Structure to design on (205 residues):
């Protein structure tokens, strides 16, 4: 049996810049080598926190709604928006609840702390173990290629425009070497003042 996390394909990458953070994903939904859709977003926004979900498409859809429900409850109970660090722990505990029958996803969280303005990114395994990072985090079927591209292109203290260019080139070149990812991409550039969403045209083959 093939790895359930790789059946539908998809890739996500997050990067830290100077007082900014970026998260990007491809838009392909496939059934292994068969492409079903080129408009399947894998990044979901919760206030100033973002989560990228790759893996089994049914689990991606289910978890995005679970997190929306839990974040709304948090906002009502605490009467404030959830911070990225808190959201990361919420993701971790939610995944760990299902550790004996896990969701087949590879989440990546990115965001800016609304009080300190510090960028935050982290990744997770299937059961919610958090992998904190100060440079970049990758996930999905092209993660090996993305690691190489990010190590080559990423530099400390990138400005928002430079960060956009870096993460775009890393994602597009990484997924070009992976048949299960691609078919367009979406990039979010997050600063304390604003959030910018941009769509990228990529190879459609």
């Amino acid at each position: 049996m093939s790895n359930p996390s790789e059946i539908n394909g998809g890739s996500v990458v997050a990067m830290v810049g100077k007082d900014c953070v970026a998260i990007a994903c491809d838009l392909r939904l496939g059934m292994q080598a068969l492409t079903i859709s080129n408009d399947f977003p894998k990044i979901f926004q919760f206030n100033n926190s973002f989560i990228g979900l790759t893996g089994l498409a049914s689990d991606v859809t289910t978890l995005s709604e679970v997190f929306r429900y839990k974040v709304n409850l948090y906002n009502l109970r605490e009467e404030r928006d959830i911070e990225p660090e808190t959201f990361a722990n919420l993701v971790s505990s939610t995944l760990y609840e299902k550790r004996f029958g896990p969701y087949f996803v590879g989440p990546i969280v990115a965001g800016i702390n609304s009080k300190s303005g510090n960028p935050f990114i982290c990744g997770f395994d299937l059961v919610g173990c958090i992998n904190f990072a100060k440079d970049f985090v990758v996930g999905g079927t092209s993660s090996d290629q993305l690691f190489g591209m990010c190590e080559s292109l990423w530099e400390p203290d990138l400005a928002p425009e430079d960060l956009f260019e870096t993460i775009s080139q890393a994602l597009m070149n990484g997924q070009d070497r992976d048949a299960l990812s691609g078919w367009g991409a979406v990039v979010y550039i997050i600063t304390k003042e604003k959030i910018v969403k941009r769509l990228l045209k990529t190879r459609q083959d």
